[in-house]
Design goal:
single chain; 234 residues; alpha+beta; 14% strand; globular
Length: 234
């Protein structure tokens, strides 16, 4: 009934034929390139051995040289290790560097003064004055009043065992020492003058004024576990 050419499969291509005709080598190449790019992005980048040696060498040279590097001097009873860091997760790399450095230093169980810039902006001005520059990165570590460096220096000094030599001789904390009951280990408590509002009422002026006893968050350093400090740049 029907002509032979109407029943010919060459006139109506099958779905498999259309799919094979659509796929081309150039499209496969694009897929391969995209896959390689995604795999390269997931692959962690490791710093070269020369970079790691340079960091460790510069840190050791700075420590062994005369005290011309930035340093801090605390008062009586000040803690031998001072760490400037942030607990905010805004910048992931900075947060992870701060967490890593604090974890490494806490493993030695020595008294450590942790100064969180996100809790008190005064620490930022303090660190800028010590280092003598406005643009600073975190974390920054001082041991025995001497400036050691940031995350890279602490990490490689720890891997090479040189950090243990720097911390040797420091008095460790008591074995049963735990979190401070007053602040829960945060180092700050609410201001007792403004109850954390950072505002006090002045009867003489008949107005509310900023509290001068606390920082912008209405917090003061914990009197139980924190030491009053006033660093001096040398």
């Amino acid at each position: 009934m029907w002509s032979e050419w109407l029943r010919s499969p060459s006139r109506v291509p099958s779905p498999s034929t259309r799919a094979s005709n659509f796929s081309c080598s150039s499209f496969k190449d694009i897929q391969t390139l995209c896959q390689e790019d995604s795999e390269s992005e997931r692959r962690p980048k490791k710093s070269s051995i020369f970079h790691r040696v340079r960091i460790a060498t510069s840190a050791l040279r700075a420590w062994a040289s005369p005290p011309s590097e930035p340093s801090i001097h605390g008062g009586k009873g000040s803690k031998p290790i001072v760490v400037y860091f942030t607990s905010l997760r805004v910048v992931r790399k900075t947060f992870e560097d701060c967490r890593t450095v604090r974890s490494i230093l806490k493993s030695f169980r020595v008294p450590m003064d942790e100064r969180d810039l996100s809790m008190d902006s005064g620490f930022l001005s303090e660190l800028q004055g010590i280092l003598g520059r406005k643009n600073v990165t975190l974390p920054r570590v001082f041991i025995g009043g001497r400036y050691v460096g940031g995350a890279d220096e602490i990490r490689w000094l720890h891997e090479t065992g040189e950090l243990t030599k720097l911390i040797q001789g420091l008095v460790p904390v008591a074995p049963d020492a735990g979190f401070c009951d007053a602040c829960g280990g945060h180092g700050f408590v609410l201001c007792d003058q403004c109850s954390g509002s950072h505002k006090v009422y002045s009867e003489k002026r008949n107005e509310f004024r900023s509290c001068t006893a606390c920082n912008e968050n209405g917090l003061i350093r914990c009197p139980s576990c924190s030491i009053a400090h006033r660093p001096i740049r040398s």
